[in-house]
Amino acid sequence: MNDITILRRLAQTIESRKLAETNSSYVAKLFHGGQDKILKKIAEESAETIMASKDGNTDQIIYETADLWFHCLILLAFHELSPDDVLKELERREGISGIQEKASRTSD
């Protein structure tokens, strides 16, 4: 069964590979490249997800979204955050209209 624990397991794997040798771990290579390298991958995966959607290819949409989510998990780990932090925010927003939620944000 697919459930939220996969995100937690992936986050644990990412955490365990942060300091690995770059020649043995893709995750370590991204961390070694720093935030810019991670953000570049997120931009790339976002564009690929958009193109899969525009093409209407459901298999590619799923594949590219999985890549995008994975790289977002790497970004969270870079900032010492976890999927649970995002899940808490989604839970906070549950039942609130998007218009209402956006209006409640304070501007800096």
UniProtKB/TrEMBL annotation:
One Pfam family recorded for the sequence: PRA-PH
EC number from the UniProt entry: 3.6.1.31
Top-rank EC class of the record's enzyme: hydrolase
UniProt pathway annotation: Amino-acid biosynthesis; L-histidine biosynthesis; L-histidine from 5-phospho-alpha-D-ribose 1-diphosphate: step 2/9
A single MF term (Gene Ontology): ATP binding
SUPFAM superfamilies: all-alpha NTP pyrophosphatases
Catalytic activity, as annotated: 1-(5-phospho-beta-D-ribosyl)-ATP + H2O = 1-(5-phospho-beta-D-ribosyl)-5'-AMP + diphosphate + H(+)
Location in or out of the cell: Cytoplasm
Highest taxon, organism lineage: Bacteria
Alphabetically ordered keywords of this record: Amino-acid biosynthesis, ATP-binding, Cytoplasm, Histidine biosynthesis, Hydrolase, Nucleotide-binding
GO cellular component, one term: cytoplasm
InterPro entries in UniProt: HisE, PRib-ATP_PPHydrolase-like
GO biological process, one term: L-histidine biosynthetic process
CDD domains xrefs: NTP-PPase_HisIE_like
HAMAP family: HisE
Assigned protein family: Belongs to the PRA-PH family.
Protein name per the record: Phosphoribosyl-ATP pyrophosphatase
Organism placement in taxonomy: Bacteria, Pseudomonadati, Pseudomonadota, Betaproteobacteria, Nitrosomonadales
